[in-house]
Specification:
Family: Belongs to the complex I subunit 2 family.
Subcellular location: Cell membrane; Endomembrane system; Membrane
Organism: Allosphingosinicella flava
Order of helices and strands: HHHEEHHHHHHHHHHHHHHHHHH
Strand content: under 5%
GO molecular function: NADH dehydrogenase (quinone) (non-electrogenic) activity; NADH dehydrogenase (ubiquinone) activity; quinone binding
Structural class: mainly alpha
Enzyme class: translocase
Oligomer: single chain
Strand order of the largest sheet: 1-2
Number of domains: 1
Radius of gyration: 21 Å
């Protein structure tokens, strides 16, 4: 038991921190909201430092329910850093409207406990518990601005569709258990390996993958994403677009490789369909968008499609490319959303239209330069860092004899480049719109600067260590 508890130390630390901060909220009220946020950031840093599997081989806890390996370690460190940075964006945003509450960092912490369990799940039960813990906190976060009808609507939509996805997932879990006789990933894989994939196991696999696909916003389970991203408060949207995406992609990868390994031929067809549909729809549907948050929602769907191309390879290099893709994607996405957080008119009211970015290069040149850097990078234009994740997933697909899939992915990336370049055109060539509010915010300025430096050619210094770390993490699944 002591060994198992040691392997779950990050989750225990985050859970204890959440309970302590709830007590702080009960006794100190919202006056302690900023202090609670910084304490939560410290909790994330401490948890990242004690993640098992970074400097050792990790282990298996609670008789296979929980796996602490280098794959989980890579995902968790990325999740904790993304959650901490996204949480910092909320302080100044909510404080202006007087609605920043001490419960906010508590919800982020609890959601991150669920995300950690998703990355370390070794059993269908752990998978479901982690997914639900992450989701329940996310439903509240989406509707955090209670007096804003859009936020309330976003929370309700997310809750209803999330409940539907949970039902689909549970049905798949019950089918897999019924036909394989086990809920552990190893047991399911052994059952499929011994007697081949039965019809019941095939149906169970489809339902489980559909339930997880909802969490990664893969087409055709993407319906909630644009509405929730637009309606939720912008700091919450920044969180949704980063940490939970990493957790869900890590979970999908582990389930596909470890639990459904003997059925690679079957699940590969599902993943290829989701990858193609996501890259095409994410690219085409974003073209007509006028709201920057809706556009970024379709952009996230588009990027998930590219990451799934790496997973479709089903090889160690393919899994490594998925991890590498998510690491770069998180930096680009958080940088972009921190720029969006700066989009406020002279009265301090948030503006979200793409038209409001017109002429930004003349009114706020530094902000425009950072946004242009992020847009070029997400479009995958060299020599920026955003080029390398796409290169690695396409390389993994070609090595797995899926050259045609890589070719389609390259073609659809051209579609996506159109709307990223459109934003740059609006900022640099259109007549200036009313200038954004000039307000100093050291935290967001620091995040934007660091993210811009990372996606610039200076980020190449991180290429080799990040590539080696992702390859080492992927090796844990094979």
């Amino acid at each position: 038991m002591g060994y198992s508890l040691a392997l779950t130390l990050p989750e225990i630390l985050l859970s204890a921190s959440a309970i302590i901060l709830m007590m702080v909220a009960a006794f100190a009220g919202d006056k302690a909201a900023r202090l609670s946020t910084w304490l939560a950031v410290l909790a994330f840093i401490a948890s990242a430092l004690v993640v098992p599997g970074v400097f050792d081989i990790g282990g298996i806890a609670f008789d296979g329910l929980f796996i602490a390996d280098s794959f989980a370690a890579f995902a968790k460190i990325l999740i904790y850093l993304a959650a901490a940075i996204a949480m910092l964006s909320a302080m100044s945003w909510f404080a202006r409207d007087g609605v920043y509450r001490t419960e906010y960092p508590v919800l982020i912490l609890l959601s991150s406990v669920g995300m950690g369990m998703m990355a370390s799940a070794g059993d269908l039960i752990t998978l479901y518990v982690g997914l639900e813990l992450q989701s329940l906190a996310a439903y509240v976060l989406a509707s955090f601005q209670r007096k804003d009808s859009r936020s309330a609507e976003a929370g309700l939509k997310y809750f209803v569709l999330g409940a539907l996805a949970s039902g689909i997932l549970l049905y798949g879990v019950s089918l897999l258990y019924g036909f394989s006789g086990s809920t552990s990933f190893a047991g399911v894989a052994a059952a499929m390996g011994d007697g081949g994939v039965s019809t019941g196991e095939l149906f169970g696999m489809v339902f489980v993958l559909a339930g997880i696909a909802f969490k990664v916003s893969a087409v055709p389970f993407h319906m909630w994403t644009p509405d929730v991203y637009e309606g939720a408060p912008t700091p919450v949207t920044a969180f949704f677009a980063s940490a939970p995406k990493v957790a869900a992609m890590a979970l999908l990868t582990r389930v596909a490789i470890e639990a459904l390994g003997p059925a690679t031929f079957e699940w590969r067809q599902i993943v290829i369909f989701m990858a193609l549909a996501s890259t095409i729809l994410g690219g085409v549907a974003a073209i007509g968008q006028q709201n920057i948050k809706r556009l970024l929602a379709y952009s996230s769907i588009n990027n998930v499609g590219f990451a799934l191309i790496g997973l479709a390879a089903g090889t160690r290099e393919g899994v490594a490319s998925v991890l590498f893709y998510m690491a770069i994607y998180v930096v680009m996405t958080l940088g972009t959303f921190f720029v969006v957080l700066r989009m406020r008119d002279e009265k301090g009211e948030p503006v979200e239209t793409i038209a409001s970015l017109s002429g930004l290069s003349r009114t706020r040149p530094a902000l425009a330069a950072a946004m242009a850097m992020f847009m070029f990078s997400i479009a995958g234009i060299p020599p920026l860092m955003g080029f390398w994740p796409k290169f690695y997933v396409f390389e993994a697909a070609v090595a797995a004899d899926l050259t045609w899939l890589a070719a389609v992915g390259i073609a659809t990336s051209v579609i996506g480049a159109f709307y990223y370049l459109r934003i740059i055109k609006v900022m640099y060539f259109d007549d200036p719109a009313p200038a954004f509010e000039a307000r100093r915010d050291l935290v967001s300025s620091a995040v934007i600067l660091l993210a811009a430096l990372f996606v610039s050619p200076l980020g190449w210094f991180a290429l080799e260590p990040l590539s080696n770390a992702s390859l080492n993490a992927a090796g844990a699944l094979f």
